[in-house]
Automatic annotation (TrEMBL):
Segments forming domain Copper amine oxidase N3-terminal: 126-214
UniProt GO MF annotations: copper ion binding; primary methylamine oxidase activity; quinone binding
Name used for this protein in its record: Amine oxidase
Organism lineage string: Eukaryota, Viridiplantae, Streptophyta, Embryophyta, Tracheophyta
Required co-factors: Cu cation
Annotated active site: D311 (proton acceptor), Y399 (schiff-base intermediate with substrate)
UniProt remark on cofactor binding: Contains 1 topaquinone per subunit.
Domain of life: Eukaryota
Length: 649
């Protein structure tokens, strides 16, 4: 019987990392492999028990320190502290530890007694899968179904929270079948649930409820060697006009810092853009990253109801990133960057080519005009769009999320998310839609194969600093004005009524509810020459929100999906919208809790939270591997520049 050690072994292959210099860090640079080893040593020396590492990341210096360094770069001689934030399990308890690398000490070690548990790590997931695979009752169930043991692969699933008063750190292990395919996700072995206690690494529950046919292997293969080759030549767009200085990226009129975190994946910091009018770089965003991803399935059957995942806080969006493939994931002109994370024993692992950075010319137009009204002349001016993309792919089990942060010379930041990979399908007795007389919670995609309805909600933490960190959130409501016939030839027109959000409750917005509203972050202390506040607006893509009832346990845990937009005052510790301890969380930590304090947000350092959502009703084109399903949003300069910022280019 195979256990799914593939990932683990794959990452171990890359453990022959390079030892990087610890000198000349940007203070927001991720921890280097050498620093990760130092953290491992300090933490292990601190405890007499075995330590299981669940998160190690940079404990960044205070924002005020970073900003003062940015404005006085020569002060970099006094390097700010290098510290690590660690979450580890020791003797059945979750510890939050701050490690200071310069003094080689543990500054703080706090036991967390609240609800929820930290990120799972690969080591324990693989151990749980292996344990289940060798469990005699499971082997008997496999044999009873007439399946070959050596073709079975087991996977761990987080279990959510359904009102239990006491929680144990457990996962449910589900099994899949290969036998003639590599697409194991299309061949679930339904009806069997193995419950594993992760701390004790012991099976605490087993149930073989029902026998359902395993969907066929036929038609599930998706590798190119078995397909007709539809490749097109990859165009070389020429060398990128970018400079990478450590983790600081300079391209065209932009400068920003990019970093890898094992929980968030890609983190964008200190994004600023050059303003030719002012002859200076102007601050736009202090920080941007994916804070949480909520994926609730709508299937209520016993083996499925609990599948309401928080991918960032349970599995680690960074931990699940995969090396990108040159010339396939990206064009020839791409520049790559590696990422480093921590394994269960605290040692560093390397993900090569975790980010690709490349110029993109999609043959879009930045602006154009053809002037035909001047006698004897036709004047045409066209400026093609070229942008820079930072790309990562996080493969959370069956699903692949392609995340692009795209910066444009126009000042626009565009974020796109593409969903692809393999659906989570349920085995079924049905071979045709006409046979189905009951609720099956999905679409029949192939014989014995139901693609379950589900959502993907990705919430972004966007800490704007428009020309400084004192910003405000403005709703520009488009209102229809009705007129008396006697006063105008027109019966109606619309105008903009601006509303400054005073407190957090003013800034909770459900988009798509009929009203036309533009949402902006502005600096009320800075105006353009003609008197408009400088700002950026959110141009939402999808306005999809959760359809679950508010008092449903899964919705309580993913409560940040109640609104598409939230604004909170900046707080260094408020990073993870689904709570720091997301596994089996109870919704008592996270964005809705912070926002309920209803703090003042006008003329404050504020963070905009936006959720990009997908309702996914699977269709047959998603079988056996999904075509990319994309959504995006933009952050657009709005009265930020004095005029069209690319005119002088
Ligand atoms: Cu989906």
């Amino acid at each position: 019987m195979l256990s799914s050690l593939t990932n683990f072994l794959f990452f171990l292959l890359f453990l022959n990392f390079h030892i990087l210099s610890t000198q000349n860090h940007h203070p927001l640079d991720p921890l280097t492999p050498l620093e990760l080893i130092q953290v491992q040593t300090i933490v292990k020396n601190h405890f007499s028990h075995n330590v299981s590492f669940h998160y190690v990341g940079l404990d960044e210096p205070e924002k005020s320190t970073i900003l003062s360094l940015e404005s006085n770069p020569y002060e970099r001689i006094d390097t700010p502290y290098r510290r690590a934030f660690v979450i580890a399990r020791v003797n059945g308890k979750s510890h939050q530890i701050i490690v200071d690398l310069s003094s080689n000490t543990t500054l703080c070690d706090k036991v967390y007694n609240g609800s929820g548990f930290p990120l799972l790590n690969f080591g324990e997931e693989n151990a749980a899968n292996k344990l289940a695979c060798s469990y005699a009752p499971l082997i008997a169930s496999i044999e009873k179904r007439g399946l070959k043991l050596e073709e079975v692969i087991c996977m761990s699933f987080t279990i959510g929270w359904y009102g239990e008063e006491k929680s144990r750190r457990v996962v449910r292990v589900m099994c899949y079948y290969m036998d003639g395919t590599i697409n194991l996700y299309m061949r679930p072995i339904e009806g069997i649930t193995v419950t594993v206690d992760l701390d004790q690494m012991k099976i605490i529950g087993y149930r073989d409820r029902v026998m359902v046919p395993v969907p066929k292997a036929d038609g599930t293969y998706y590798k190119r060697s078995n397909q007709s080759d539809l490749r097109r030549a990859v165009r070389d767009l020429g060398g990128p006009d970018l400079a990478l200085d450590g983790h600081v990226l300079r391209w065209a009129n932009w400068e920003l810092h990019i970093s890898f975190d094992m929980r968030a994946g890609l983190i964008i910091s200190l994004a600023s853009i050059y303003d030719p009018e002012k002859n200076e770089h102007r601050r736009v965003m202090y920080r941007g990253f994916i804070s949480e991803v909520f994926v609730p399935y709508m299937d209520l059957t016993e083996e499925w109801y609990y599948r309401t995942f928080l991918d960032v806080g349970e599995y680690g969006f960074g931990l699940c990133t995969v090396p990108l493939v040159p010339l396939q994931d990206c064009p020839k002109n791409a520049v790559f960057m590696d990422g480093y994370f921590t394994l269960q024993d605290g040692s560093p692992g390397r993900i090569p080519n975790v980010f690709y950075i490349f110029e993109r010319s999609a043959r879009d137009v930045m602006f154009r005009h053809t002037e035909l009204e001047i006698p004897g002349q036709t004047i045409t001016e066209v400026r093609p769009e070229v942008s820079l993309v930072v790309r990562m792919v996080s493969t959370v089990g069956n699903y692949d999320y392609i995340v692009d942060w795209e910066i444009k010379q126009t000042g626009i930041i565009k974020v796109s998310v593409g969903l692809t990979g393999l659906l989570e399908v349920r085995g079924s007795t049905y071979t045709h839609k006409d046979q189905i007389q009951e609720e099956v919670y999905g679409t029949i995609l192939a014989e014995n194969t139901i693609g379950s309805h589900h959502d993907h909600f990705l919430i972004f933490n966007l800490d704007f600093d428009i020309d400084g960190d004192v910003n405000s959130f403005i709703k520009n409501n488009l209102q229809t004005v009705h007129l008396n016939r006697n006063t105008s030839h027109r019966k109606s027109y619309w105008r903009v009524k601006s509303e400054v959000a005073k407190t957090e409750s003013d800034a909770r917005v459900q988009l798509g509810s009929g009203a036309s509203t533009e949402l902006s972050i502005v600096n009320q202390n800075k105006k353009t020459k003609v008197g408009n506040y400088v700002g950026y607006r959110l141009v939402p893509g999808s306005v999809t929100g959760s359809l679950l009832s508010d008092d449903y346990y899964a919705q309580i845990r993913g409560g940040f999906t109640k609104y598409n937009v939230w604004v909170t005052p900046y707080n260094k510790s408020e990073k993870w919208a689904g709570g720091l301890y997301a596994d089996q969380s109870r919704g008592d930590d996270g964005l809705p809790t912070w926002s309920s304090r209803n703090k003042d947000i006008e003329d404050k350092d504020i963070v905009l939270w936006y959720t990009l959502g997908f309702h996914h009703v699977p269709c047959q084109e998603d079988f056996p591997v999904m075509l990319v399903l994309s959504e995006s949003f933009e952050l657009q300069p709005t009265n930020f520049f004095e005029y069209n910022p690319v005119l002088k280019k």
